[in-house]
Amino acid sequence: MTIGGQTFKVVYDTGSSNLWVPSHKCWSPACWVHKTYNSSKSSTYKADGKAISIQYGSGAVKGFDSIDDVTLGNDTAKQVGFSEMTSLTTQFVAAKMDGIMGMAYPTISQNKLTPFMVALKQQGVIDKNVVTFALGHSDEASSMVVGGEDEADRSEEFTWHDVTTQAYWMIAVDSIKVGGKTVATNLKGIVDTGTSLMVANKSTLGDLATISVKQDCSTDASTLPEVTFVIGGKDYTLNGAD
């Protein structure tokens, strides 16, 4: 994606709503090894300057807000509020991305900045405020479609589930089963592209937490139990190989 014509690698995160990249004014070590935004190189930049601080599960960032045109693929949202971060904690040094594009609801956007997807819809660039993720076992097998769905990614018809609270993409989870045994019921679940982990309270999902695999993934997949998420009465099952 680009901000003011400057290209960045970002995580497309449905678990947050703010867009940020490192600032040219940043002196944190994490900024030295990532691309930084320089407002003087953009003809569409406008100043804002409001301070912002965001705490994530794996680090924190601080900086200030700015305004510029943001482009993803062929889609451009004009004069979008985003943040230039001048301080990044050490956890971001090894990160392969420069910043984060939050794709959750405006209600959890710090400083009430309009999320990029919402800006695209408001400006008439896309017809539907929809983003579709297809995750495969390789880069080539994965995709993200903005503004709709890619029919080629469907192995079956989509099943739609209502969002219960318009903050995160939060849905009701009927139950979770491990090896056919129900280990939790009546849960609230967040569909979060910003993490590669399944996170929950250990006392709620104790049986799930006991599944053990070797660090090098050499565990025989056939020895692992199936894990099933029941959502809206439909089973979504992960087998050992998954």
Describe this structure as you would to a colleague.
The protein is built from three helices and 15 strands. The protein is mainly beta. The chain folds into two domains: 2-131, Cathepsin D, subunit A, domain 1 (Beta Barrel); 159-238, Beta Barrel (Cathepsin D, subunit A, domain 1), CATH 2.40.70.10. Strands 1, 2, 3, 4, 5, 6, 7 and 8 form an eight-stranded mixed beta sheet that branches.
Short description:
With 242 residues, the protein is mainly β. It has 3 helices and 15 strands. Strands 1, 2, 3, 4, 5, 6, 7 and 8 form an 8-stranded mixed sheet that branches.
Would you spell out the secondary-structure blueprint of this structure?
Elements: E1 2-3, E2 6-7, E3 10-13, E4 19-22, H1 29-32, E5 46-56, E6 59-72, E7 75-88, E8 99-102, H2 116-122, E9 131-134, E10 143-146, E11 165-166, E12 169-178, E13 181-190, H3 206-209, E14 227-231, E15 234-238
Shape: globular
Which class of the largest domain in CATH terms?
Mainly Beta
Global Rg: 20 Å
User: Total helix count?
Assistant: 3
Largest sheet: 8 strands, mixed
Unreliable residue runs:
none
Fraction in beta strands = 35-45%
**pLDDT averaged residue by residue:** 92
CATH topology of the largest domain: Cathepsin D, subunit A, domain 1
Number of strands: 15
Give the % helix.
under 10%
Helix and strand composition category: mainly beta
The number of domains is 2
Cα distance, first to last residue? 30 Å
